[in-house]
Amino acid sequence: MNRTIQMRRRRTEARGQTLVEFALVFPIFFVLLMGMIEFGLVFNALLSINFASRDGSLIAAEAGNAVGSDCVILNKVEQGVGAPASTSRITRVEIYKAGKTGNPIAGKVNTYNRTGTTTCTLPDSTTLSVPYTLSGSAGYADTTRCNIQGGCSGSGGVDTIGVKITYSYTPFTPLGSFIGLGSTTYTLVESNAMRMEPVL
């Protein structure tokens, strides 16, 4: 009888020990799981805006100095961002003339904020509306861009045009609240620049 009681005690102690171990390990497992999910979502958003800026700069290189090319570029950016990333989280798109390093040249930037609507008339007389508004004046007007092989007046050659996207990322999982960060919003920025297709 003594032996039976001892065996029962051991089983009860083992169950209690397993419960305590689970209680200690679960929060760590939960944080790791939420961290992996959040990392995947951040990485997706980063890749999505990177691809959108690349596609936008490719269209910009092909559009050259055509009237309404900014609307075409912004439309391509909108099409390039896919789920779970969202175009509604794009706060700003900059279309700029890039220097040799790919960085914007001062004063040669068109900054579009995601407010209101801009409508452009394209060379084929169709209209295109995009959910962006030009902030200030156009520092890099579409008709002033140089896409001529021999260069334009004082330009020294074909322009390199860039597209920079600013994206506001808010965490999807409760990880921030769980580890005490609250609902912090992070700013992701990606840009790409390409040399314009030259016209001979």
Model description:
By secondary structure, the protein is an alpha+beta fold. The protein has one domain. It is built from three helices and seven strands, in the order ααββββββαβ. The strands form two sheets. It has a five-stranded antiparallel sheet with strand order 5-2-1-6-7. Strand 1 (90-98) and strand 2 form a beta hairpin. Helix 1 packs antiparallel against helix 2. It starts with a helix and ends in a 5-residue tail after the last strand. The mean pLDDT is 86.
List strands and helices in order, with pairings.
Elements (H helix, E strand, L loop, with lengths): L1 H62 L5 H12 L9 E9 L5 E10 L4 E4 L5 E4 L2 E3 L24 E10 L5 H4 L7 E10 L5
Antiparallel strand pairs: 1-2, 1-6, 2-5, 3-4, 6-7
Structural class call reads alpha+beta
Approximate strand percentage: 25-35%
Helix content estimate? 25-40%
Largest sheet data = 5 strands, antiparallel
In angstroms, what is the radius of gyration? 27 Å
Q: What separation lies between the terminal Cα atoms?
A: 102 Å
Q: In sequence order, what are the helices and strands, one letter per element?
A: HHEEEEEEHE
Q: Figure out the total of helices.
A: 3
The count of β-strands is: 7
User: How many individual domains?
Assistant: 1
Runs in which pLDDT lies below 50 for 5 or more consecutive residues are none
Shape: elongated
Strand arrangement, largest sheet?
5-2-1-6-7
